[in-house]
Design brief:
Pfam families: Rieske, VanA_C. Keywords: 2Fe-2S, Iron, Iron-sulfur, Metal-binding, Methyltransferase, Oxidoreductase, Transferase. This is Putative Vanillate O-demethylase oxygenase subunit. One of its GO terms (molecular function) is monooxygenase activity. This protein is of the alpha+beta class. The chain has two domains: 81 residues, Rieske [2Fe-2S] iron-sulphur domain (Rieske Iron-sulfur Protein); 193 residues, Naphthalene 1,2-dioxygenase Alpha Subunit, Chain A, domain 1. 22% of the residues lie in helices and 30% in strands. Strands 11-17-16-15-14-13-12 form a seven-stranded antiparallel sheet. Strands 5-6-7-8 form a four-stranded antiparallel sheet, with no helix packed on it. Strand 12 and strand 13 form a beta hairpin. Helix 1 packs antiparallel against helix 6. It starts with 11 loop residues before the first strand and ends in a 9-residue tail after the last helix.
Length: 348
């Protein structure tokens, strides 16, 4: 795997809604510095975090009560649309504007399109209504990852690694022993795994109060270039739908600066939604599992980064979804390159 450039014509999770307020927040996304903040009406906005005067980070400036953003290097001031409205102690107004990124704020998540604004299509976003559904509860956050986002993508599309990397929590022999069905719909890649009459992994024993044997389902969907949703069902063997315990996991695999990635996550469930102890346990387990993944992926990153010749890889049947996901991202990047680039346009 040598692909390290970032697709920009696509949706990424830029921030959780509760991260962004009236304080300027910088976050690098697809090698672009982005400054997030809210206007007085609580609308969230995001601009490229470079003042057009001398490229000083706007996130080091300040935000006035009326929503005017000031660069604190030479005093350039910008309104909520990114237009320069003046410079401190100067009568003339420079003809300057900030690049503003298309955003969608929905269900407590802020999605950003770093590429061509005219191509931003909200219908490409997955259904995340469970994040605000009163019949579900969830936890969320973001974990830094010092590895390229494609490694995280393949980690999520090939969950057979649970058998070997997470045996004390969500993994056991049944995961690697059960084949997956893979589907491709345009750029989207999906997989399904049905484990029937298996031993309950420790996490599900404690989370659901189940004893073996159980049926465990995994249905994952990758929305390129950086969104993954996993639907999970666990139930005593022989239990018919809709009965059983249901969980959802959302990952926002957002490239940052260089080969660093923002690993956004949300873990939800539709049972015992008022049980705070269970919520705490599941959140702790989620973070522990993610740390095991982070350790593995950062070790992988070193191996890829120090292998410029690209040693030949070996693949097996369980890699199919991951290889399809890798191919989908590569095709998106090729389309962008053939179209002549994706640099966001400045506000008019």
């Amino acid at each position: 795997m040598t692909l390290t450039q970032h697709v920009r014509n696509g949706w990424y999770l830029g921030a959780w809604s509760d991260e962004i307020g009236r304080t300027l927040k910088q976050r690098w996304i697809t090698d672009l510095p982005v400054c997030f903040y809210r206007l007085p009406d609580q609308t969230v906005t995001a601009v490229e975090d470079r003042c057009p005067h001398r490229k000083y980070p706007l996130s080091l400036g300040h935000l006035d009560d009326d929503g005017t953003l000031q660069c604190d290097y030479h005093g350039y001031r910008f309104d909520g649309q990114g237009l320069c409205v003046g410079v401190a102690e100067q009568a003339d107004r420079p003809k300057a504007a900030l690049r503003r990124f298309p955003l969608v704020e929905r269900d407590g998540a802020i999605w950003i399109w770093p590429g061509d604004p005219e191509l931003a299509d909200e219908s490409l976003l997955p259904d995340t209504s469970w994040l605000t559904d009163p019949n579900w509860t969830h936890v969320h956050g973001v974990v830094p990852l010092k590895a390229r986002h494609l490694l995280l993508l393949e980690n999520l599309l090939d969950l057979t690694h649970e058998t070997f990397l997470h045996p004390s929590s969500i993994g056991n022999a049944a995961v690697a022993a059960t084949p997956i069905d893979v589907t491709v719909d345009g750029d989207r890649v999906g997989f399904s795994r049905r484990m029937i009459g298996i031993e309950a992994p420790p996490f599900y024993e404690k989370s659901c109060g189940l004893t073996s044997p159980v049926d465990r389902w995994q249905d994952g969907d990758f929305y390129p270039p950086g969104i993954f949703v996993l639907n999970i069902r666990v139930a005593a063997t022989g239990t018919e739908e809709p009965d059983g315990f249901h969980m959802k996991v959302l990952y926002g695999m957002t490239p940052g600066r260089g080969n660093e990635t923002h690993d956004f996550y949300a873990l939800g469930r539709d049972y015992l939604i008022d049980d705070q102890e269970l919520t705490k346990f599941q959140h702790e387990q989620q973070l522990a599992v993610m740390q095991e993944d982070v350790d593995a992926l950062e070790a992988q990153e070193i191996m890829y980064a120090t292998d410029p010749g690209g040693t030949a890889e070996s693949s097996i049947k369980s890699d199919l979804a991951a290889l399809r996901g890798r191919r989908a991202v590569a095709k998106m990047l090729t389309r962008e390159q053939q179209a002549g680039g994706t640099r966001p346009r400045a506000s008019a």
